[in-house]
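Continuing the batch. This is chain 6 of the set; chains 1 through 5 are on the previous pages. Same settings as before, nothing changed between runs. Recording input and output for traceability.
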Amino acid sequence: MALSSSQLKHIEKRLKDERERALTALNRDVAEFSQSDQDRTGDITSMPLHMADVGTDTMQEELAASNQTRISRELADIDDALTRLYETPEKFGVSESTGAQIPFERLDAIPWARS
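Output for chain 6:
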């Protein structure tokens, strides 16, 4: 059974909210990345005092880059879901792999779900 118009409107709102959340997170990360290392870490000098500080800074940079990649992919999935919702609303919420209806509760939790 296809989603009702009220369910589709709810999913559209959820997708737009999630898109805004993802964009905010990406913009925040970009703003933090554009700061100097000294400003970002709060160090009073640009010279590391201990080798462990260098390792910690590197780990935090790699974690931030990984999160940016994850959020970018999520944003692309959300945009794809919005496109599917607008272009073929009657097919939205149908699993691409099985053709079965995706439960509304799952779509409410992860509105860009494909299966």
